[in-house]
Design brief:
The complex is a heterodimer of chains A (313) and B (305). By secondary structure, chain A is mostly helical. Helices cover 75% and strands 1% of the residues of chain A. In chain A, helix 5 runs antiparallel to helix 12 and helix 10 packs across helix 12. The longest helix of chain A has 35 residues. The radius of gyration of chain A is 26 Å and the shape is globular. The two termini of chain A are 15 Å apart. Chain B is mainly α and 305 residues long. Chain B has two domains: 48 residues, no CATH class; 205 residues, MetI-like (MetI-like fold). In chain B, helix 11 packs antiparallel against helix 14. Chain B starts with 8 loop residues before the first helix and ends in a 6-residue tail after the last helix. The N terminus of chain B is likely disordered. The chains are: A mainly alpha (313), B mainly alpha (305). At the A-B interface, helix 2, helix 3, helix 5, helix 6 and helix 7 of A face helix 1, helix 2, helix 5, helix 6 and helix 7 of B. Chain B: One of its GO terms (cellular component) is plasma membrane. Chain B: Belongs to the binding-protein-dependent transport system permease family. Chain B: InterPro entries: BP-dep_ABC_trans_perm, MetI-like, MetI-like_sf. Chain B: One of its GO terms (biological process) is transmembrane transport.
Chain lengths: 313, 305
């Protein structure tokens, strides 16, 4: 490839210029052509709706009052931050994202470190570990609600009965914890997969050299594994955040947003459906996006370092 | 060991290798490592079984009778029955699950096919003969994936209402296509980047046009990558709830939406619910295990191999 593109100036440039220019332009479109349908499709269906949301967020628009539609400036945003329910949704979203991401990241790292060693039935263990992630999110939340958390016949209280423990109404007493634990159960496998891939991409020469120099397992972990894993940890945290900030299925199914578990995506849905307040729902949507953009900026940077390594290889 | 004083590259290396051999022979390192591995194995098995247990319990409960499923303490060894599945599929309890299951299958399969038709040419343009600023295009695709669905939910709902697309399959299919396209482009690009460029050059030298090249060169060579991409897109579409819940009601209702409206009946229903959850998860479990090796790559949008 390199040889053909480094074309020494053998051609008398002026004479051929127009022809070559045309040819290049034609080639440009031939190259760009296959890309365009996908690009246009994505722009139309993801960027335009967001612009519309931005506009509607500045409007007074409740479908219950179709005659009273107009521009209100930032009042929808003021409402989001002054209304106690909505403010709580902002905090619930943050708390849920941080707790679920951090705990599943730590658990995922632990499991990945275990799985990175040689032992009997490693493939089976990996397969078993992935299973929670492959249960449809709604189905998982529904089964956890009735099969595991239910105070009368749920698995947790069933096990407590066996050891003569107390009976607990898990979702009512610990609503946020119940949602968090169910999400952690689903997301630990995801983190495990990414971190395991990271562990397996550690440069073998460096590890061998460390072994030769008699480095202790802790030192290997601290000075080789952790620095190497930093980017994978970041990537797991950021991708996890992006998905969990948007979580709707678990909140909707486990608690239907009651008991102080409503997060922003659930609130948007609720405002849209029950209150029919389009302007307010849009303002909430914009706030979710702003939060996501903050995370996404870091996420994109992390991906781009991994990506540029791959490209330069 | 005197060779070390004259450090020429190959000799130092061999000296170090020899040293490594000596040391590991004198230290009981390998034995300790083996013991460590065994311990790690035991812990790993315990943790994995703990994580897997809810899945196992779900399947087991779905095979119990309703009274056994609602037992407290849990009846692990209760007799197995298919009653839960019979109640779920028999429409005795209300609506039949078949239309939503078929809708889900249709939305997932058709949107996945559309995604592939759009993503393979795009990935070709980004990997094989990259257009200018192709990395920018890649990151544009990625950034759209970071825009939460709720950001566009309302306009999509209003548009659907205006053009009469509420509760239709095609609208859902179009949206799922847009939702999965960025992932597919990233995955397909990383698969195509691994193919030796000489193959594509040969095709173009033989006078194959873009369509021909895609059909007779790209698709056959990248078929394992295409399969993995398809499975990932299928999983995401099949799982989707928020859009389906907002935009469909009766005609185009998908399986996840059906599942949320499932628990309305009185009396014991845990076996039935478990059966429903198992049936709906089965396609994803199959697709996920089939794509196991490529799962990470798909979930990390191709950033991790």
């Amino acid at each position: 490839m390199a040889v053909t593109t480094v074309d020494p100036p053998v051609f008398p440039a002026p004479a051929r210029l127009t022809f070559r220019d045309k040819w290049l332009a034609k080639d440009g479109w031939a190259r760009r052509g296959p890309l365009l349908p996908a690009l246009v499709f994505v722009i139309v269906l993801t960027q335009l709706p967001f612009v519309a949301t931005l506009v509607i967020s500045l409007m007074r628009w409740n479908s219950n009052y179709p005659d009273d539609i107009g521009f209100t400036g930032l009042s929808n945003f003021t409402t989001v931050f002054t209304d106690a329910d909505l403010r709580s949704a902002v905090f619930v979203t943050i708390e849920m994202t941080v707790v679920v991401v951090l705990v599943s990241l730590v658990l995922g790292l632990g499991v990945a470190l275990l799985l990175n060693r040689q032992f009997f039935g490693r493939g089976i263990v990996r397969t078993l570990m992935i299973a929670p992630f492959l249960i449809v999110p709604v189905a998982a939340a529904l089964f956890w609600k009735h099969g595991i958390y239910n105070p009368v016949y749920g698995l947790l209280n069933g096990l407590l009965t066996l050891v003569h423990g107390p009976q607990v109404d898990w979702i009512t007493q610990y609503p946020r914890l119940a949602v968090d634990v169910q999400l952690i159960w689903q997301w630990t496998p995801f983190m495990m997969l990414i971190l395991l891939a990271g562990l397996q991409s550690r440069p073998a020469e460096v590890l061998e050299a460390a072994a030769v120099d008699g480095a202790s397992p802790w030192k290997v972990f601290r000075f080789i594994t952790l620095p190497h894993m930093r980017r994978y940890l970041e990537l797991g945290a950021l991708l996890g955040s992006i998905y969990i900030v948007q979580n709707f299925d678990s909140v909707y199914t486990l608690t239907a947003g009651a008991l102080g578990t409503a997060n922003l995506p659930y609130q948007v849905y609720e405002t849209l459906y029950s209150a029919n307040d389009y302007g307010l729902a849009s303002a909430q949507g914009v706030i979710v996006v702003v939060g996501s953009i903050v995370i996404a900026t870091f996420a994109l940077r992390t991906v781009s370092t991994l990506f540029s390594e791959e490209v330069s290889r | 060991m005197t060779t070390l004083t004259v450090p020429s590259a190959p000799e130092t290396r061999s000296a170090r290798d020899a040293g490594a051999g000596d040391r590991s022979a004198t230290r009981p390192g390998s034995k300790a490592t083996r013991r460590g591995n065994a311990a790690a194995g035991i812990v790993a098995w315990v943790v994995a079984l703990l994580f897997f247990f809810p899945v196992l319990w779900m399947v087991l409960t779905s095979l119990h009778s309703e009274p056994d499923a609602a037992g407290n303490p849990p009846k692990l060894f209760a007799p197995l029955t298919l009653d839960g599945y019979r109640t779920f599929f028999g429409s005795a309890s209300g609506a039949s699950p078949w239309p939503p299951l078929i809708n889900s299958a249709e939305a997932s399969v058709v949107s996945t096919l559309l995604v592939l038709c759009l993503a393979i040419p795009a990935a070709y343009a980004l990997a094989v003969k990259p257009v200018r600023r192709w990395t920018d295009v890649m990151f544009f695709f990625l950034s759209t994936k970071m825009l939460p669905v709720v950001a566009g939910l309302l306009p999509l709902y209003i548009i659907a209402k205006q053009i009469g697309a509420l509760d239709t399959m095609w609208y859902l299919i179009v949206l799922y296509t847009a939702m999965n396209l960025p992932i597919a482009v990233w995955m397909m690009r990383s698969f195509l980047a691994e193919v030796p460029p000489a193959l594509f050059e040969a095709a173009s030298l033989d006078g194959a046009g873009i369509v021909r090249t895609l059909r007779s060169v790209v698709v056959p060579i990248a078929s394992p990558g295409i399969a993995a991409t398809a499975l990932i897109c299928f999983i995401f579409s099949w799982n989707e709830l928020l859009l389906a819940n907002t935009l469909t009601s009766t005609v185009a209702q998908t399986a996840p939406v059906f599942l949320t409206s499932f628990v309305t009946s009185q009396g014991l229903f845990l076996a039935k619910v478990s059966a429903a959850a198992t049936v709906i998860s089965l396609p994803v479990l199959i697709a996920g295990f089939a794509a196991q090796d490529k799962l990470v790559q798909g979930l990390s949008l191709g950033a991790v191999k």
